Amino acid sequence: MNILFLNPPDEHKLCESPNEEGEGVLESDDFGYFPPLGILYVLSYLEEKMPDVNIYFHDCVAEKISHKEIPALVEKIKPDVVGITSFTISLVDIVKLANTIRKVHPQAHLCLGGHHPIAFPVQAAQLKEFDSVIVGEGEKAFYELVKSIREGRSFEEIEGLYTNESIKKWIGKDFKDKRFLTHVNIPAAYMDELDKIPFPNRNHLKAEYHSVVGYSKKMATIITTRGCPYLCTFCDVPYKKYRTRSMDNLFEEIEQCLEQGFEEFHFYDDLFNITPRKVIEFCDEVEKRNLNFKWDFRGRVNAVNEESIRRAKQAGCRQISFGVETGTDEGLKILKKGTNTKKVKEAFDLCRKYKIRTIADYIIGFPFEKTEEDIKQNIDFLVNLNPDFAQIAILMVLPNTPLYFEALQKGLVKNNEWEEFCLNPTEDFKITHWEEHFTLEELRNFQDQAYRRFYFRPKNFINQIKNIDSFYDFKTKVSGLFKLIQGLT
After folding, report:
1. I want to staple 186 with a disulfide (CB 3.0 to 4.6 A). Which of 15, 77, 170, 315 is the partner?
2. Three-state SS for 477?
3. Are 35 and 452 in contact (CB under 8 A)?
4. Calpha distance 163→14 (Å, rounded)
5. Residue 449 to residue 382: CA distance in whole angstroms
6. Sequence-ordered list of residues with C-beta below 8 angstroms from that of 238, at least 6 positions apart, any chain
7. pTM for this one?
8. d(CA 7, CA 60)
9. Pairwise CA distance, residues 335 & 312, whole Å
């Protein structure tokens, strides 16, 4: 059997906060390309269970494979099963990709996985381009699908796997599972024991991945946990039960990556530092094994203390990205962030003390920002916080979040607009922003001003030059500056 895994092209991806020309100031991709770990896990699980099948993988985004090149690729491989990963904002590309595969090789079984099916399971299963969809974590489900197809058996009883017909019995049923956000109302595929999942087989990666704030072009992304127990009102992470890998399992993967030549590790968990103790235990293991590598993680300010930051620096931690979001205690409380501005400042001060670089993920356009002064106060906090980098987004009203349902009640979003898009994805669909107090154009202007205030300060230029720690770092900073200037003009 020939099994093809694809991360689709992103030629028609929805813009997060478009201007009149349909372009954003800085989109998420401007901060780098990261390997699609989810589909790599699914691939590696299948590879271990069925070593006799032929596996092909292409990350069309990183490899710069366009839609025009897909027919030749499919014709060459002639896949029996195609697994396609997905995000809802890329649905136009996903459907276009599936249609192309159908025309070139109609007998292939097309299975859709990734984030989109767990966000919109019924609509995903109704896409005529696909034979099946996997709702949830796809390692076991996809393996069982391929096995069933090879053996000529039905696959409709596989947990988390649905077809247009099999999903109908769950429509309208009151199904709840505390392991997921409340909108996940059908049984989903789920992996309890993370140590039993094979490591992502990075030998299938053909492109070079990088971060604009990285240290080296030899960067690996790793997930040490799955799930996030927090309930931030703007976030749509579907997995709420927090699961961890053992240190032995995690460091076996790290050592494997080091042997493959990787020099830098980006820990891509939704929440790496659930407690300071987790970070300290990680550092203990680095020192016990006498390993030397640069690393960074995404974390929360309320889960650090001085010991964890000090130990992290000693163990090679170079950078931490904190989800700050907003700069008032009232705002943080409304967003259910579980922290306050005092803790935010303390976390950044600790990182400064131990010379760990910081990124502040920030958002403007929240419902509680009702005046220009509110926006200004928010940005004032960011500038005074003085992280090394800031990513400033305009709030997107994402489906299946408390903010989305609040927007529905206020009439700020059209009921079922996302469901309609998911059934008939078109390029002219616009992501909703909170326009109760400001128009999107006004929010764009605030975003532009915020980026200018933060990055074009003499103090920031001096800090950026002082903190250069590799030639690669220098190159990416220059590239990032040009992208920022281009986005602001």
Report:
1. 170
2. helix
3. no
4. 26
5. 13
6. 115, 118, 119, 180, 181, 183, 184, 400
7. 0.92
8. 6
9. 28
Q: What is the DSSP letter of 433?
A: B
144 Cβ partners below 8 Å, 6+ apart?
155, 158, 161
Q: Which domains, from first to last, does the chain contain?
A: 2-177 (3.40.50.2300), 208-396+433-488 (3.80.30.20)
Cα separation of 326 and 362, whole Å? 6
Q: How many distinct helices (H) and strands (E) make up the chain?
A: 17, 16
Nearest Cα to 197, choosing from 47, 84, 82, 337?
47
- Alpha-carbon distance 82 to 354, whole Å? 48
Helix (H) / strand (E) element for 69: namely: none
- Which residue blocks in 19-158 are alpha helix, DSSP H? 37-49, 70-77, 91-104, 115-119, 121-125, 139-151
DSSP letter string over 302-348?
A: GG--HHHHHHHHHTTEEEEEEEEE-SSHHHHHHTT-S--HHHHHHHH
CA–chain centroid gap for 476, Å, is: 21
Measured distance CA(365)–CA(251) in Å, rounded: 41
- Could you tell me the CA-to-CA distances from 50 to 132, 135, 143 in Å, in that order? 20, 22, 8
Q: Which amino acid is at 343?
A: K
Measured distance CA(339)–CA(225) in Å, rounded: 22
- Round to whole Å and give the CA distance between 60 and 6: 7
Q: In the structure encoding, which two tokens stand for residue 29, read together?
A: 């991709």
Region of residue 235 (left: phi > 0; alpha: psi -120 to 50; beta: else): beta
Q: Which residues contact 482 (CB under 8 A, 6 or more apart)?
A: none
Q: How far apart are CA 92 and CA 425, in angstroms?
A: 5
Query: What's the confidence (pLDDT) of residue 204?
Result: 96
Length of the chain: 489
Block mean pLDDT (10 aa), the chain, length 489: 97 82 58 86 98 97 96 98 97 98 97 96 96 97 98 94 94 84 87 96 90 82 94 89 96 97 93 96 98 95 97 97 96 96 98 97 97 96 96 93 94 94 94 95 95 89 74 65 61
Question: Residue written as tokens 């999107």?
Answer: 440
Amino acid at 172: G
Q: Give CA–CA dist 111/124, Å, rounded.
A: 10
Q: What is the DSSP letter of 109?
A: E
